[in-house]
Each structure stands twice: as structure tokens, then as C-alpha cells.
């Protein structure tokens, strides 16, 4: 698993799993490396950096055998929580890529992810939801976020080069109405590293 800090108004955090610190001063928009771990239950506690009392998150996660997961710290500091996004391996055609979308902006309404020409890749994605992967050709894309079902563009995401034989997730983060503003993170997913 890896951890994504996607809570836009939360400070940097230290993260502990069963009492062992697994991340130090993870800041907004930051990802940890993928951390190998045996399957089972883990008590996850998240503290503002440098503190070890009064965690902002204290929860239990269950890791399944042979799973790859991004555990996202989401919401505002007032309602901060962890949301798992499991990466499900699927057959990959050589020379293609696989893309999905996850909506982590706490004040944004339902959105569509489109291309600049209006082609809708994903429709009506609500906060905390993620889509299935779709297959695309590798190239440089110009993406847009639009209010669901409308032509109203709320974010332009130009010149994103996606390479073949990889899995990606586009994470929408930040505030639709506030600072830090709406933006996307496009990391390579861990299942890209697994043998076919």
C-alpha cells in the first residue's frame, strides 16, 4: 500500500501502523512509496507532524492478500478520514495504457472527465468515488474537468503524456471554491510494476 495526503487544509502528518511510524511529515499532495506489508488488520494513526498524542485519524485498515492499494487521507481537517482505492490488475494489451479517475475534492460537485474536444471519458463521478480503468492509446492528452452533464469546464489539465503498458489514476484534489484550488495528481499506479 501507499498513502496519499489529499486533505487540502490539513498540515503535514506522521503516520503510524500498529505503533510503527511509516511516514514522516507527509504533506498535502504527497504520496509515500509503496510499502510491502503482510495481509491483515492494521491500526492506522495519523498525527500532525512531530506529535504523538491526539491523532487526527485513528482507524483500522484491512489489507487483503496480493492487493495493491492507495489509502487516501481525504476531507477537510474537521472531517478527515482515510479512503482506500484498490488497484485491480486486469489483462493489458501491449502498447496500450489504462486510466481511471478518483474524485477527492471535498467541496466539488459531481464531475465528468473529458478530453478537450468534449469526449467524455468518465461521467458523473461524485466525491470519494473512483471509476474502473479504461483502455487508451499512449500519447499526450489535454483533459478537462466539467460539471457533470454540462459543458462548464472547471479545470483544464493540458499536456499530460501517458506512456504505454502502464496504469494511471487521475486524482482530483483541492477546493473547488477556496485555496488550495482544484487540481489533479496523476501518479503511476503500483500494479504497473507487477508481472502480467
Automatic annotation (TrEMBL):
Residues 2-114, 115-185 form the DUF4397 domain. Pfam families: DUF4397. InterPro entries: DUF4397. This is DUF4397 domain-containing protein.
Amino acid at each position: 500500500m501507499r498513502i496519499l495526503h489529499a486533505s487540502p487544509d490539513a498540515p503535514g502528518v506522521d503516520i503510524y501502523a500498529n505503533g510503527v511510524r511509516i511516514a514522516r511529515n507527509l504533506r498535502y499532495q504527497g504520496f509515500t512509496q509503496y510499502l510491502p506489508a503482510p495481509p491483515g488488520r492494521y491500526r492506522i494513526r495519523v498525527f500532525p507532524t512531530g506529535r504523538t498524542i491526539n491523532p487526527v485519524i485513528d482507524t483500522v485498515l484491512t489489507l487483503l492478500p496480493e492487493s495493491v492499494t492507495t489509502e487516501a487521507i481525504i476531507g477537510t481537517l474537521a472531517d478527515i478520514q482515510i479512503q482506500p482505492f484498490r488497484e485491480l490488475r486486469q489483462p493489458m494489451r501491449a502498447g496500450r495504457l489504462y486510466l481511471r479517475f478518483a474524485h477527492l475534492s471535498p467541496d466539488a460537485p459531481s464531475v465528468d472527465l473529458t478530453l478537450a474536444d468534449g469526449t467524455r471519458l468518465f461521467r458523473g463521478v461524485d466525491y470519494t468515488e473512483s471509476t474502473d480503468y479504461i483502455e487508451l492509446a499512449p500519447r499526450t492528452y489535454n483533459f478537462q474537468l466539467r460539471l457533470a452533464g454540462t459543458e462548464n469546464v472547471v479545470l483544464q489539465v493540458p499536456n499530460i503524456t501517458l506512456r504505454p503498458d502502464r496504469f494511471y489514476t487521475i486524482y482530483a484534489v483541492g477546493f473547488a471554491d477556496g485555496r488550495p484550488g482544484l487540481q489533479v495528481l496523476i501518479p503511476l499506479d503500483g500494479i504497473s510494476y507487477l508481472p502480467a
